[in-house]
Amino acid sequence: MSTEFIPAAKPLIGDEEREAVDRVLRSGMIAQGPEVATFEQEFGAHFAAGRPTVAVNSGTAGQHLGLLAAGVGPGDEVIVPSFTFAATGNSVALTGATPVFADIEPNSFTLDPESVRASITPRTKGIMPVHLYGHPFLVDAIEAIAREHGLAIYEDAAQAHGASWNGRQVGTLGDFAMFSLYPTKNMTSGEGGMVTCATEELARGVRLLRNQGMETQYANEVIGFNARMTDVHAAIGRVQLTKVDGWTAQRQANAATLNEGLAGVAGVTTPIVADEAVHVYHQYTIRVDAAERDRLRDALKEEHQIGSGVYYPIPNHRLPSLAHFAPDLHLPETERAATEVLSLPVHPSLTEGDLARIIAGVTAVLRAGA
Questions:
Q1: What are the boundaries of each domain within the chain?
Q2: pLDDT cut 70: percent of the chain above it
Q3: CATH code for the structural domain at 15-241
Q4: Sequence-separated (6 or more) residues with CB below 8 Å from residue 205
Q5: CB–CB of 180/159 below 8 Å?
Q6: Which of 110, 122, 189, 341 could cross-link 137 (Cys pair, CB 3.0–4.6 Å)?
Q7: Contact 312, 261 (CB under 8 A)
């Protein structure tokens, strides 16, 4: 059996992407131009039922600008999960609004509706659920709360390209949705993000904000940023868009193999998928006892040459950068998950032999510690 290292994630860049970049470089149109405009149309048609879509230079920028375009600012509160990457809470704080951290539901690792309900105050403007690991948030329950209280929904779809809930595409569920195109996501543009918008008015606001506040050159309408995507990045993304469905199917097949292989291993809880959900497995995240998690991670790397990742070891409400928004807050499911989760490789380049090694490695390490 091969002992070549199996990375936790692996960007897939082929000759088609290189040729697309060369084509753009030869054209002389390198900054935001026709490739970006076409990529926006193609991405929106593919992932957001044709919603207006705006390309930006990172997922975080997309989240930040989407919130600003939606009117979020000082005096507002936005409910967010603490169990996610810090960009979710950061994007709220960068608008001048207050991120309010809620707990997660333990099966999907997404916002717990009852914790969301308990977090609502007169200042709450919206809810920003994260489709964590590629599993949609609990859409029906969160939408019901939002309707009851007149709140907006802003989707963090950074990890969820192609996921859905009861046949409804992620990216079409809120006022806007942000997709990340970072290298390790289910598809990439090298770096970048996409914002899918419920209205053309909101999309225009994001376009203004990404381009120094102007749509017409030198006719600046608002104070904006430089958050443009380049045509080089868009060219990569357009090629990746033609491949992502096949990669998603392979991720799902890999997850099924891991589920079957780990089903009988004592101490492992494999990912739980809601009946309504299509999971796209940006991460394949298991739970193990907190006392075993770090030992398993280290032994997989050192003894079995298998990478893995802990996403996320420190809840946002405990980070030095964000803790002042949540003094003395206790989120039991979030804090438990941070000590128990481990994401195993699930990326499309895994071979059958790689999957067998992952299953064998996890089994061996946990049995040795029993």
A1: 15-241, 244-369
A2: 99
A3: 3.40.640.10
A4: 65, 68, 69, 70
A5: yes
A6: 110
A7: no
Report residue 5 as tokens: 């290292």
Alpha-helix residue ranges (DSSP H) falling in 56-95: 59-69, 87-94
Please report the pLDDT score of residue 369 as a whole number.
Answer: 72
What is the rounded distance in angstroms from the CA atom of residue 15 to the CA atom of residue 58?
A: 24
Q: Which fold has domain 244-369?
A: Aspartate Aminotransferase, domain 1 (3.90.1150)
Instruction: Choose among 243, 210, 194: nearest CA to 53.
Output: 194
User: What is the spatial distance between Cα 233 and Cα 126, in angstroms, rounded to a whole number?
Assistant: 31
* Residue-wise burial string across 331-370, b where 16 or more C-beta atoms lie within 10 A, e elsewhere: bebbbbbbebbbbbbbbbebeeebbebbbebbbebbeeee
Q: How far apart are CA 84 and CA 109, in angstroms?
A: 9
Q: pTM, whole model, 2 decimals? A: 0.96
- Tens of pLDDT, residues 314-348: 999 999 999 999 999 999 999 999 999 999 999 99
Contact assessment for residue 255 and residue 263, using Cβ atoms and an 8 Å cutoff: no
Give the whole-angstrom CA distance, residue 161 versus residue 348: 14
C-alpha 363/C-alpha 66 separation (Å) is 44
